[in-house]
Design goal:
Largest sheet of chain A: 7 strands, parallel
Mean pLDDT of chain A: 97
Helix content of chain A: 25-40%
Largest interface: A-B, 45 and 45 residues
Low-confidence stretches of chain A: none
CATH architecture of the domain at 2-221 and 264-293 and 334-346 in chain A: 3-Layer(aba) Sandwich
Structural class of chain A: alpha/beta
Number of helices of chain A: 12
Oligomer: homodimer
CATH superfamily of the domain at 2-221 and 264-293 and 334-346 in chain A: NAD(P)-binding Rossmann-like Domain
Shape of chain A: globular
Radius of gyration of chain A: 20 Å
């Protein structure tokens, strides 16, 4: 297949590019290094230096003989993206090309405006590039479980049948997100659903929870192939951050009461999910939505697990509750369903003690690179 | 009160500016003439030439002694809007500054992209201008009944309590619009609700149906004070278009079966609604949503009423069903509630024979200006 990966330099994009290339597909990875630039600007560089995308691809080809094409440019620029769609004729587009940080989106006007425009315009351009150049292409869009927020009802997979005063209809499941970043994903979903039902596009929208991990079947070949691994308060997902804190000997920073519950998954399961979605596309005019996680934890449970795993390898891990910089419920109902991807055949890799110990051991090899100034929250949701 | 009208040159914006000025408020009208420029570019000029905004204000002052301040500029430019908010210190912002045409938004990529960026960025800038310069200000935002689409359940006013598997929560009423323009209003609502609940802003979002009419207590003083009256397929709302067709002696163009039902209201009731909302603001952190229409009609009912009114004054009005250029249900359930604005005191002006005859008579005075080339649909929803 012709597989176009937008945001192909990212934490998920790069492993996805390698994964599809390993399976024998023709892969084109597109990125504008926006996340690298934002990470540097906010002093949030990843734990391990990553070669640039061209160099990563050369390294990967040297290791595996699989090629990955690269184009550097901005998907929010329609001429750039449309030319790629016309020339490459993708059969699958995996769209990760968004500003991915909730705290970044809450810094100030400029960061918020960039997040809104980058994310919406990229999604809009992807839809139009499909309309104009690849109408049969299957778009796999990365949404987030955060679109749903923390409703007091069970979270279904994307859609909800509503009965009201004796009549019924089916709608997108209500969405109410906790940051501007997550809200841009809500807007993406609204926009995608409009173009899908109006023009008969085919789209899979994946409502993914926070991802952890850095080792995949491909990245394990060489540290130069590792995905960017952020452990800071802005670009680091919570479990990755806790693991680095444990290794660095600083207390795990639990925001508030720590009862915030989310659905998590291992990076290797993200790759499985994308592959499963790609190999069984939805029909024309269908917006197929899957919830994408494998198990739910509260933040405090995650911290406890890291503490336990740390003890097994001689790390004395402390947990410290700090004022919550976010505006979110710290105790809430959370019962999301997760069936669609399992029905497609997903075999979950759960967060066992072994997995945690493996990640801690890997991070310990890079312990000297940890900058503990990156760990404490620097962005608050409330303006006072 | 300090009343800031964004889109103050528009079909609703200009009558609103006069209305608040007549009531003794300090009014600042802001516009960048985007709608005038788009109308000229698409050969959709209004029936009656409108003086520019400065000249309208001079004329209005000459007639009434009420001043209206004017600033010409782009609300999608944050520096421009933020400076106005800081200087004028609005207590009420009425936000009409959006590309208002569904067909325009469906022309091509460029028109769609302009609609998305203009509408979203203007709303985003308004929210930030409030956060940074007028946090207690009451924003009155013009949404549209079109945000809801045509669901198979009763349409409540903005919100819906959902019971699902024995648990309950309250959400924004499901939204699923029929054009990109209407979809941008859905995105506006999502964005506004995020900023309201996160930062405690106060907002009234008005889900308005199509408006008709051109005579208000202020515009009647001089034809130079008339709002821009579009009768074309792009900027003309359906009833205004039918009235001009009746006068011009061309058949009323009913799209498809004509069973499309919507909630309509007279321009003078729009002014009442805005005034009622302004005089009783919601609390901080409240997103108050009202449905804003006074009665519902199918398109065919509207055409029949125009035909009947025309006969009374000697016009031989024909009705012609044409292929529907839009993608919409032509027969559907439609039962929207409409209570909030009535509770605030709205006295509805219904679409009586007298009202129709009055509008027809007014338009007949300008019959020589009708360009019937502007009437047939020039924009189709489907790409084939």
């Amino acid at each position: 297949m012709q597989v176009l990966i937008l945001g192909g330099d990212g934490y998920l994009g790069w492993p996805t590019a390698m994964h599809f290339a390993a399976a024998g597909h023709n892969v084109l990875a597109v990125d504008n290094y926006a996340r690298r630039n934002l990470a540097r600007a906010t002093r949030s560089e990843p734990l391990i230096d990553n070669p640039n995308l061209h160099d990563r691809c050369e390294l990967y080809r040297a290791q595996t003989n699989h090629g990955i094409e690269v184009r550097i440019g901005d998907c929010a620029d329609y001429r750039f993206l449309a030319a790629i769609a016309a020339e490459f004729q993708p059969q699958v587009i995996v769209h990760y090309a968004e500003q991915p940080s909730a705290p970044y989106s809450m810094i100030d006007f400029e960061a918020a405006r960039f997040t809104l425009n980058n994310n919406l315009n990229t999604t809009f351009n992807v839809l139009w590039a499909m309309l104009e150049h690849a109408p049969d292409c299957h778009l796999i869009k990365l949404g987030t479980m955060g679109e749903y927020g923390t409703p007091n009802i069970d979270i279904e997979e994307g859609w909800l049948e509503i009965e009201h005063r004796g009549r019924k209809d089916k709608f997108l499941f209500p969405r109410q997100a906790g940051s501007l970043y997550h809200t841009t994903k809500v807007l993406d979903t609204d926009l995608i659903w409009f173009y899908v039902r109006t023009y008969g596009l085919r789209v899979t929208d994946l409502m993914q929870g926070p991802v952890y991990g850095l080792i995949t079947d491909q990245s394990r070949l060489d540290p130069g192939l590792y995905p960017n691994f952020h452990y800071d308060d802005i670009f680091g997902t919570v479990l990755n951050r806790f693991l680095v804190q444990a290794v660095a000997g600083v207390p795990l920073t639990v925001y508030g009461e720590g009862g915030q519950t989310r659905g998590y998954l291992n990076l290797i399961d993200t790759l499985q999910c994308i592959e499963l979605a790609a190999s069984s596309p939805p029909g024309k005019g269908e917006l197929r939505i899957f919830n994408q996680f494998t198990e739910t934890f509260s933040v405090l449970e995650l911290a406890d697990r890291v503490k336990d795993a740390g003890r097994d390898i001689g790390l004395d891990v402390a947990i410290k509750r700090i004022d919550n910089p976010r505006k979110e419920m710290e105790q809430h109902y959370y019962n999301p369903s997760f069936t669609g991807l399992k029905q497609l055949g997903l075999k979950s890799h759960l967060l066992t003690e072994d997995v945690l110990v493996g990640m801690l051991s890997e991070i310990m090899r890079h312990k000297d690179k940890v900058d503990i100034r990156k760990i404490m929250p620097r962005v608050a949701w409330r303006q006072n």
